[in-house]
Specification:
Serine Threonine Protein Phosphatase 5, Tetratricopeptide repeat, mainly alpha, 79% helix, 18 helices
């Protein structure tokens, strides 16, 4: 990298018509390109160093601030990222920069600020599907479900292959109680991206809402093929398996949840319930004790549930 920049500098200095600012801009562009390669390779520290050098060479080159902002966002330096995106916008407003600053503001919990930036991105590029998609996410977070559905729909119109937009719209529709519409959207999202975890995971809840427990279990199983360590999916499948009478399967799921998260109080409680149903009372009490130790708020509910199970057990 240093050798290449030295050659560029030598060539430029040999031309008297090239100013120092032009030399610095071209060197900055070279560092920017190299930093972008490092960023794409996942080498964040190296990318950051290259973008920093580009900024030192040419403090008025907006692209360098934008790229450094991307690195800082990935490093969870959200304030630093926002500062860089803001400087980039001041030098050269671009829809993509507003989009990324909006996403960073959303990560900080500022949905209103995020929406304002997405509005600017859409103003600069009315065909920017991802800006509509991101704005929909922010609107959903604020409880504006109709606005979210409208934006997801626009994103889909602009990009019919936008799998995440279908899943997002399905989630908003489900929150409005439209389980059938949600299932249609989730299914389309799955069709477009069969390896997407959220499509299967979210569709399982819509199917459960419709009373299709087998379908819900099947969706959770597919989601767990994609992400075998997702604790929420494992716990929910365990609950549904227990409801269907598959106690062995439920125990396996709750056991796996506890392996992955030994502080998952509800998993201990649910595993205890199954043991109680199987008359493994001593083992069940140990599970209940552990659940209450981890979450004392479970005590009253557990006592009531245990009492009901004991009363309904056959002699």
């Amino acid at each position: 990298m240093v050798y290449r920049c030295a050659i560029v500098l030598l060539v430029l200095l040999l031309s008297p018509a090239v100013s120092r600012s032009q030399v610095n801009r071209r060197l900055a562009m070279d560092y920017l390109k190299h930093g972008t390669d490092e960023l794409e390779a996942g080498n964040l520290d190296a990318a950051l160093a290259d973008f920093q050098r580009a900024i030192e060479l040419d403090p008025n080159y907006g692209a360098s601030y934008f790229s450094r902002g991307l690195v800082r966002k990935r490093q969870q330096d959200l304030d630093g990222a926002i500062s860089d995106f803001t400087r980039s916008i001041a030098l050269k407003p671009m829809a993509e920069t507003y989009l990324n600053r909006g996403a960073t503001l959303k990560d900080k919990g500022d949905s209103d600020g995020a929406i304002a930036d997405y509005n600017k991105a859409i103003e600069l590029n009315p065909s920017y599907a991802d800006a509509f998609f991101n704005r929909a996410i922010a609107k959903d977070a604020k409880g504006d479900l109709d606005g979210a559905i409208s934006d997801f729909t626009r994103a889909i119109e602009l990009n019919p292959a936008h799998a995440r937009a279908f899943v997002g719209r399905g989630f908003a529709r489900m929150r409005k109680g439209d389980a059938d519409g949600a299932i249609v959207d989730y299914s389309k999202g799955i069709e477009l991206n069969p390896h997407g975890f959220l499509g299967f995971y979210n569709r399982s809840f819509a199917r459960k809402y419709k009373g299709d427990i087998e379908g819900a279990i099947a969706d959770l199983s597919k989601a767990l093929e994609i992400n075998p360590t997702d604790v929420d999916a494992l716990h929910e499948r365990g609950r549904l398996r227990a409801a269907k009478g598959d106690l062995d399967g439920a125990l396996a799921d709750f056991g796996r949840v506890i392996e992955l998260n030994p502080r998952h109080a509800q998993a201990y409680a649910n595993r205890g319930m199954i043991m109680l149903l199987r008359r493994q009372d001593a083992e069940a009490q140990k599970e209940f004790a552990k659940a209450v130790e981890l979450d004392s708020s479970l005590k009253a509910t557990l006592e009531k549930s245990v009492d009901q199970i004991v009363k309904t057990r056959r002699p």
